Amino acid sequence: xxxxxxxxxxxxxxxxxxxxxxxxxxxxxxxxxxxxxxxxxxxxxxxxxxxxxxxxxxxxxxxxxxxxxxxxxxxxxxxxxxxxxxxxxxxxxxxxxxxxxxxxxxxxxxxxxxxxxxxxxxxxxxxxxxxxxxxxxxxxxxxxxxxxxxxxxxxxxxxxxxxxxxxxxxxxxxxxxxxxxxxxxxxxxxxxxxxxxxxxxxxxxxxxxxxxxxxxxxxxxxxxxxxxxxxxxxxxxxxxxxxxxxxxxxxxxxxxxxxxxxxxxxxxxxxxxxxxxxxxxxxxxxxxxxxxxxxxxxxxxxxxxxxxxxxxxxxxxxxxxxxxxxxxxxxxxxxxxxxxxxxxxxxxxxx
Amino acid sequence: xxxxxxxxxxxxxxxxxxxxxxxxxxxxxxxxxxxxxxxxxxxxxxxxxxxxxxxxxxxxxxxxxxxxxxxxxxxxxxxxxxxxxxxxxxxxxxxxxxxxxxxxxxxxxxxxxxxxxxxxxxxxxxxxxxxxxxxxxxxxxxxxxxxxxxxxxxxxxxxxxxxxxxxxxxxxxxxxxxxxxxxxxxxxxxxxxxxxxxxxxxxxxxxxxxxxxxxxxxxxxxxxxxxxxxxxxxxxxxxxxxxxxxxxxxxxxxxxxxxxxxxxxxxxxxxxxxxxxxxxxxxxxxxxxxxxxxxxxxxxxxxxxxxxxxxxxxxxxxxxxxxxxxxxxxxxxxxxxxxxxxxxxxxxxxx
Lengths: 351, 351
Known about the structure:
The structure is a homodimer. Chain A contains 11 helices and 16 strands. Chain A is an alpha/beta fold. The first copy, chain A, has 2 domains: about 5-270, Spore Coat Polysaccharide Biosynthesis Protein SpsA, Chain A (Alpha-Beta Complex), CATH 3.90.550; about 270-350, no CATH class. In chain A, the strands form 5 sheets. Chain A has a 5-stranded mixed beta barrel with strand order 5-8-6-7-9. In chain A, a hairpin with a 3-residue loop joins strand 15 and strand 16 (about 325-330). In chain A, helix 3 (about 80-95) crosses helix 6 (about 200-210) and helix 7 (about 210-220) runs antiparallel to helix 8. The first copy, chain A, is globular, with a radius of gyration of 21 Å. The two termini of chain A are about 20 Å apart.
């Protein structure tokens, strides 16, 4: 899933340069890191990227080894249910028994061997048992920025991995609840990483959102033919825009979760980027030509200009040649307001 | 005096674009504002600008009505005694009885009619009585960023203006002393604005710094001849670099001060710019494409990029296409450290 719009990393990210195309955490774009993390989980021709028409070419450039047909371009974003449904159509066409692992293209994950082992276990499970499986990350701190999964009864084990029923999805909690969740051991971070048979997802979509299913069927029939682009352009924009979590998962017949403990971050803000996988940042996190004098605990990013700061703490400062952002770390999520405000002023040239 | 190097307004000012060439306070460069402020005090051909070779052409462009020979270019900065001495040589050559008013080109002054009246009174006084006169600004707040002048006995009055002996120069005080100075009524801000006969200054230089005097004499002989540039290039760099205040004024035989009360600022920092002539800034001072959300009491300047700030207070943020500065308002003078640090890193391309 590589269709994000990148508002939260403005001004480094722009409408046509969303977060997954940026090399935020390392020198490698997040999309490429997500691809390389798969290792030998699947051959290259069994990897699909769902992107937008605006970023399809950039995605191809970042993943030149992918068959061109494996990059699916959404004419416009229709949320994650349509996105995953589109991929399921493409996969079902290649392999009617095909199992999907659904991964956001803009997360950071450590311990990749653990990651691959967990993905393989989840895929093997749904291939055999059916149902929709979501991978949940064991929390390491009372994080209020993530949704949670409440664990149900353990169903089975395979090696080091256990599969549980998923009792319920829990919205982002306040810090008190987050601490309770952490202490109880019965809750996981909802990482937005899933596994299912392509047909299982499409059947659930058909049962719960028939309009989405029939649109996806029309697109599925055209995929790989000369009509593919035309049908996608016509049908996709009319699909209901619903998230996987609330549109499909909450009402699904068989819901599983597989607890994982690899380090994980959705890199949801400049602050999260600085905190990295540990959730803690005590020094300046700097990229580019940055000079910090008597300044600590800041996120200091430049994509070109020389950035000099003196005597400041706990700020995010991002400098690009045509736009600059300054915001306290604990308000980094307000970048959304900034982007809206710039649009309201008609300064869309920097969005 | 238009030879400043402009460190304090980095990154808006650069080595070759010092403060006096910038339109900081209004749409007009400070040098031009200083020139226009003279009004009918002196005809255009009796105005001299001492600048540097690097900024002479820019100064000519800003003051196209000035005779080219009235822009004197220092081959390198040699502090204010040499600068004022150079001007005195040029003026003495045109008029052996000539009186100089010496003005920094990068200050902001209000109530221009009052200003001209005070300048005329000071010039008339030194023309008649001789000596070196410094204009002092009656303090309106316990400012610690300025040097002070201690008033001596009143010597005479003319209209609303009184002339006093100058008892002593006082270095920048701490806030306690500054408050005492303010309350006593016996102290003025040292504004660096002077009046004297050209010959009086040159005589004082001869008496106190003979090396400087002989160098200036050699330059004075050549001024206006074909040898002018060659002699200036050869002799000027070897002149002692001493300030007017400490090199000449403190040891002068006859020292006067004329208290003025026009609004004045030396615009010594980004913070002073925001405070303007009142010495107070409670809202954001913004220039350029700036968006401030829940942010107050900041200085927000952009010479090009869109600058967006959220949730910050009491900061200076200056954005240019190739350099960005963030510093608390009460540490704005530390721009010097920034510039030194950039030089140390070899990032001179942005200095």
